[in-house]
Amino acid sequence: MADKLEFREKLSGILELAKNQGGRIALEEVEKYFEEDGLSKEQTDLVCEYLMSQKMAVTGYVKRGGTIKEKEEEPSVLSQEEQSYIEEYLRDIDQLKGNNIEDARMAYYLPKVIDEAIKLHHPEVFIGDMVQEGSISLMLALNSYADGKEDEGKVLEEVRAGMLALIESQTETRRQDKKMVARVSELDEAIKSMSEEYGRKVAVDEVAERLGITEKEIDDILKLAGEEVED
Q1: Structure confidence by residue, pLDDT tens digits, 166-212
Q2: Long-range contact list for 33-39, CB < 8 A, 24+ apart?
Q3: Are the C-beta atoms of residues 131 and 117 closer than 8 Å to each other?
């Protein structure tokens, strides 16, 4: 595999490629892009999950461990707010049926989008966000079939890919938020402990040495906590 710097550059390149394709990329494209690097299955999975964490839909990719449906687990329970959202959305779909051909086409697929959203529902992601993301993916997929003779299986695969990218993006953001909260707490505890130990205010370089991180990292943590580094 290429060295770390070259790999990071290629990772940025595949992300840019996906962005230029409307936030979508196929698993086959990812594999071809890194073909010369000889990535293992696990490394390819990590690339796909990185793209999804950046809200890029990777069609044809199944997250390691499989989806909720594939693991034969019960979908997470919808909240009352989510159930109300679904009911109202379904009523809106009914109003599309009697309009033009394009609206009727959407009215056919949108209930399927809702079904996919319920199957993939994640407790940390509001189902309305998933439905909206799936609807956008649906429109993009249908637009690629100008003659109206689309492959329903592939269309729904695009819908699922968009939803999975949203889930990965939002859950990754929450993971990073929790990690940062833990780092702020750790820094706060270290400063208090060292102040009591030394009987004085401690310097940034002293705290950095104790925690094994750089002064810049401490500066970044304090800024996120709404504080400033004191000289």
Answers
A1: 888 888 766 766 677 777 778 888 888 888 888 988 888 888 888 88
A2: 34/10, 37/1, 37/2, 37/7, 37/10, 38/1, 39/1
A3: yes
Full-model pTM: 0.56
Cα gap 124→168, rounded to integer Å: 10
Q: Any idea where the domains of the chain sit in the sequence?
A: 4-59, 80-173, 174-224
Q: To 10 degrees, the CA torsion angle through 168, 171, 176, 178?
A: -160
CATH class of the 80-173 domain in this structure: mainly alpha
CB 27 within 8 A of CB 60: yes
**Rounded to 5 degrees, what are φ and ψ at 65?**
95, -15
Distances (CA, A) of 218 to 173, 181, 214, 222: 20, 13, 7, 6
CA 58/CA 135 separation, integer angstroms: 16
